[in-house]
Amino acid sequence: RYMWVTKKGAFCVGPLCLYCIYIYGVAVPSEVPHVLTDLLSTLCHLQVLNPFYIFQVFSIILWMSDRYYYYAACILFISLISISISLYEIRKQSTTLRNMARLVVTVTVQRDTGEEENVSSEELVPGDCLLIPPEGLMLPCDAALLVGECMVNESMLTGESIPVMKTPLPVGEDTYSPDFHRRHTLFCGTQVIQAKGRRQGSRGGLAVVTRTGFFTAKGSLINSILYPQPISFRFYQDALKFLLILGILALAGTIYSIVVLSMSKLLVRALDIVTIVVPPALPAAMTTGTIYAQSRLKKSGVFCISPPRINVCGKVSVFCFDKTGTLTEEGLDVWGIMEGSGSGFAELVPDPRLLPPGPLLSALASCHSVALLEGQLLGDPLELKMIESTGWVRVSSGCPGNSFGNVRVLAVMRPPASELQPAGIVGNPPGEWLQRFPFSSSLQRMSVVTVGLGGSNALVFLKGAPEMVASLCVKDSVPAQFSDTLRHFASEGFRVLALAYKPLNESCVKTIERGTVESSLRFLGLLVMKNQVKPESAGVIGTLKQAHLRTVMVTGDNILTAVNVARTCGMMQSEERVIYVHATPPGNHSQPTLRFHLGESSRAAEQDGLTQVSTCYRCMVRYSYHLAINGKSFSVLCEYFPEYLPKVLMRGTVYARMAPEQKTQLVKELQKLNYRVGMCGDGANDCGALRAADVGVSLSEAEASVASPFTSKTNNISCVPLLIREGRCALVTSFSLFKYMALYSLIQFCSVLILYTVSTNLSDLQFLFFDLVLVTSLAIVMGRGGPSSELHPQRPPASLLSLQVFASLLLHCLLLVLIQVFALLITRTQNWYIPLNTTVSGAGNLPNLEDTSIFAVSGFQYIIMAVVVTKGYPYRKPLYTNVANILLSPHVLSALYALPNSFAP
Known about the structure:
By secondary structure, this protein is an alpha+beta fold. It folds into 5 domains: 3-101, no CATH class; 106-226, Calcium-transporting ATPase, cytoplasmic transduction domain A (Distorted Sandwich), CATH 2.70.150; 234-301 and 723-903, Up-down Bundle (Calcium-transporting ATPase, transmembrane domain), CATH 1.20.1110.10; 318-328 and 533-713, Rossmann fold, CATH 3.40.50; 333-528, Calcium-transporting ATPase, cytoplasmic domain N (3-Layer(aba) Sandwich), CATH 3.40.1110.10. The protein has 27 helices and 31 strands. The strands form 5 sheets. Strands 10-31-30-29-11-23-28-27-24-25-26 form an 11-stranded mixed sheet, with helices on both faces. Strands 13-12-22-21-20-19-18-17-16 form a 9-stranded antiparallel sheet, with helices on both faces. A hairpin with a 4-residue loop joins strand 18 (431-440) and strand 19. The longest helix is centred in the C-terminal third of the chain and has 39 residues, at 719-757. The two termini are 67 Å apart.
């Protein structure tokens, strides 16, 4: 049945292949019913064969053989409902994922014959040449763009609503990689808004299909939902170990039963002890706290797709934050322009419109990736603000009379009509884009190639990180005060970009290559922009620090700017020292180096702003300090100085110029040090880190947020303390409920053993009342208590296998058993006591006073223990605030008082 899969060049790997077929719907029509039938059968088998349900079937058979019909029927009914709900949820999730993943459209492709043909997207295979229409389409596969330019909305993958410009794959000998050539790759599930051909008269773009199905970017996202990163949490691990301990205890009880019981009921009674150890309400009770927490989070605008992660939130010890869009506002305001040359910097010009006509003004107006769609500019807010500040206008098409053959002009930037100058002024004529190399986070720059009217004045303009731009310029064009000026603006919290340009001759324009145009440039100046810290950031960071939670900033911005923002939002105090970590890789004749520099603690910095302290880490241990490191040094540190990496990670607060993959690596390295790591980002370049973190919080509502366990509707970090408070509340609730269910099992275990000793047992209705009416009701309402309004410095415990827990359970259990034995002895000393009939056992000698006394006393013990184990301060609200628990207890007590009378002689 699955052999047809190999015709598409794929391999069948068993049930997963069935699921892939179902999700993507790529089976041949005749096989679809069989595939769906097999899928549902597989899901039913996987669900019904769950160890818990197997144990329930065993228990039901045992109870039926002992004539516990009511109890067995109720447990069977509950189990069937549970299985049905689970299958319904699986089916519902499968349908949702199928609708999300399955994208069937008609596309135009070119294959071996070179002729265009319309085919279904289900028939696409790697190697097909896909034609991208000018009006765009929803991509059904991953493809490498070969010809033309495409404006793409990638919010489904990145969470960033800003459209991205995709350019053709450069010609070279490098092996194609979707990650490295991200700016030239069209990803499955993203929307192509607009496509333009590279040549005059061409329509749309041309791309080659590289990946389909689960191998695409969207398929990988679906796969991360189907098979999320496993949760390695001590509480869940200890819970399984604790159940094993209870199983050993049940074995001991079985041996005791064999000793005291008659041979007629020996096997049934001995096995019945095993069913008491794992109560039917245990799975439901264990999830009660997280279900209530998930409901409260949803009301607060925080959505959770992985409820077990809520408990993990309670143990978070380090929280990492992206800067732009997370701690600071997304939008930037132009602060000013500072023109520079080899002779130095000019005065800061607050408004770019005041600049004289020339290359700097043209660079500001032309060096961007903004697109024009139906008269509206689309693109990065920084670039939109930059264009707005110049007053220039983007025109959709170029002038037909250019002198560069059939190379299509992508767009035209025109200055205001009042500022149009003759074509002889360099850089001021309308800028026609011939080529655009979009921004790359690894290259830290972007560039455009423009020409004036008539093909004159071919220029390349470049914009990017100041350090990178300066390294690509000829030395005599870079001002001597470049480093000092950059450091001054960065330390004041400004976002700084540098601009450069160079003329091109006609031969270079005809063979445009990025490596050629982005070299030997002339430095133009600095674009200074202000990025305001969000008003909520400082308060939230202060709350987390008071709760003894480490806060870390992970950003792609300049390290000095990041340090300034860290001080502004409270990650660093003004009097605390900042030590910069600088690591360099080995050269041809040099070894790798690691240096630590001390930055000034006051704003009155020294002229150089940095003072070398020592190359020895041990010399700085006595200072109260924070470490700051950039992405390049972080990579060198990981590769060449692994022995220093843990020390840097434990004191690092600012990680700047970090690429997306470096953010993910940082999270994983922190986890190796046994930190529970939280990550909060806006989804743009943080998806990898959000998935890797123990607790990922996305501030984006785009589809990419499904890769993050938590998504907040608010665009600030105020959700983080709420999430941690709910996590601590849910963890403490789960901890209390597990202890309560364990005590309940032990109390009932002891009660049954005591009654076995006197040749009797609880009745079917009594078991039913304890398990369903009493304990389950109390367990459900126990979890309703909300979180405390404050974050306590101490995190709640998560280990069930601790001396404190064992001692508490042992002492409580011993005390409760003594009370039951004492109650039984008192009952037997009363003058109204009537001995039970020892010639029969089980339900045959009911009612009797031994059973009645144990039943009444143990029932009150269950209620009392529900109060004892319900821990409030400092993680939950006080017990009296749980109205449902207060209202339920009197009704349970009255029922408990009335029920034993029905068994009285």
